[in-house]
Design goal:
This protein has eight helices and ten strands. The chain is α/β, with parallel strands linked by helices and 219 residues long. It folds into two domains: 124 residues, 3-Layer(aba) Sandwich (Carbamate kinase); 82 residues, Carbamate kinase. The strands form three sheets. It has a four-stranded parallel β-sheet with strand order 1-4-2-3, sandwiched between helices. A four-stranded mixed β-sheet has the order 5-9-10-8. A two-stranded antiparallel ribbon has the order 6-7. Helix 1 packs across helix 3, helix 2 packs antiparallel against helix 3 and helix 5 runs parallel beside helix 7. The protein is globular.
């Protein structure tokens, strides 16, 4: 979205895709789960008053738009990628089939998962946690607006304390708004660490993968 109110900012998309490509070329296997807030903000007025399930489906379709945008730029950059949607739409992308997704990764392709879990009432966080487990990922990285987990909202409280490491249980017990409780619980059950980092800093994704920079690891 960049500095726009909604939609796509070409410069931001290109920067993120170039960082994804660089990390992938360093030998890291990547699968991505993309949200749809930047699209959904543009249709929020139309969704007002709708039942939750309908609004959730609209949000899932927004993630497909974002996934296709990422794929298009990655392909132009020479990074092979595939979009797999939890809601089948064969004309624009592949349906999500776990074994096929694993095969794509074995062939050194970046897999972009779209449409969340395919079910309303489950967030993108939960979809990311689910795919991380299914793909047997070593870690789940979440790119956000801030440098990790704080004891308070750092945007509202300049003296908020940053955690470099925090446990799943503390996140759940203190109700720290990092990810959905269901996503945290799934990661805890499968012992997959979660790394929270700021996605807006140029080159930060590559640094985080190398264990550098400012971030929070939840384990």
């Amino acid at each position: 979205m960049g500095g726009k109110e909604y939609g796509h900012d070409a410069e931001t998309l290109n920067r993120i895709c170039s960082e994804i490509k660089a990390v992938h070329e360093s030998g890291v296997e990547l699968c991505l789960v993309v949200g749809g807030g930047n699209i959904f903000r543009g249709i929020a007025g139309a969704a007002a008053g709708m039942d939750r399930a309908s609004a959730d489906y609209m949000g899932m379709l927004a993630t497909v738009i974002n996934a296709l945008a990422l794929q298009n730029i990655l392909d132009k950059m020479g990074a092979a990628s595939r979009v797999m949607s939890a809601i089948p739409m064969a004309t624009v992308c592949e349906p999500y089939i776990r074994r096929k997704a694993v095969r794509h990764m074995e062939k050194n392709r970046i897999v972009i998962f779209a449409a969340g879990t395919g079910n309303p009432f489950f967030t993108t966080d939960t979809a990311a946690a689910l795919r991380a487990v299914e793909m047997n990922c070593d870690a789940l990285l979440k790119g956000t607006q801030v440098h990790g987990v704080y004891d308070m909202d750092p945007k509202m409280f300049p003296d908020a304390v940053h955690y470099s490491e925090v446990s799943y249980n503390k996140i759940l017990a203190d109700e720290l708004k990092v990810m959905d409780a269901s996503a945290i619980a799934l990661m805890r059950e499968n012992k997959i660490p979660i790394i929270i980092f700021r996605i807006h800093d140029k080159g930060n994704f590559g640094k985080i993968v190398q264990g550098k920079g400012k971030f929070t690891i939840i384990k």
